[in-house]
Amino acid sequence: MRPVSIKDIAREVQVSHPTVSRALRYSPLVSAKTAERIRQAAVKMGYRPNAVARGLVTKKTKTIGVVVTSIADPFIGEVVSGIEETANDHGYSVFLANSNADPAREIRIVHSFQERQVDGILVASSRVGALYMPLLSQLMVPIVLINNQHPGEFVHSVVIDNITASVQAVQHLIQLGHQRIAYMGDQFGLQSDTERFAGYRQALASADYPFLPELIVHGDGTPQGAIQPMDRLLGLPTPPTAVYCYNDMTAIGALKGIRMHGLRVPDDISLVGFDDLSFASYVDPPLTTVRQPKRPMGRQAMEILIKLFSNAQAETNIKVQGELIVRESTAPPKAKVSR
Amino acid sequence: MRPVSIKDIAREVQVSHPTVSRALRYSPLVSAKTAERIRQAAVKMGYRPNAVARGLVTKKTKTIGVVVTSIADPFIGEVVSGIEETANDHGYSVFLANSNADPAREIRIVHSFQERQVDGILVASSRVGALYMPLLSQLMVPIVLINNQHPGEFVHSVVIDNITASVQAVQHLIQLGHQRIAYMGDQFGLQSDTERFAGYRQALASADYPFLPELIVHGDGTPQGAIQPMDRLLGLPTPPTAVYCYNDMTAIGALKGIRMHGLRVPDDISLVGFDDLSFASYVDPPLTTVRQPKRPMGRQAMEILIKLFSNAQAETNIKVQGELIVRESTAPPKAKVSR
DNA sequence: CTGAAAGCGCTTACAG
DNA sequence: CTGAAAGCGCTTACAG
Question: Residue B302: enclosing H or E segment and its boundaries?
Answer without folding.
Answer: helix B294-309
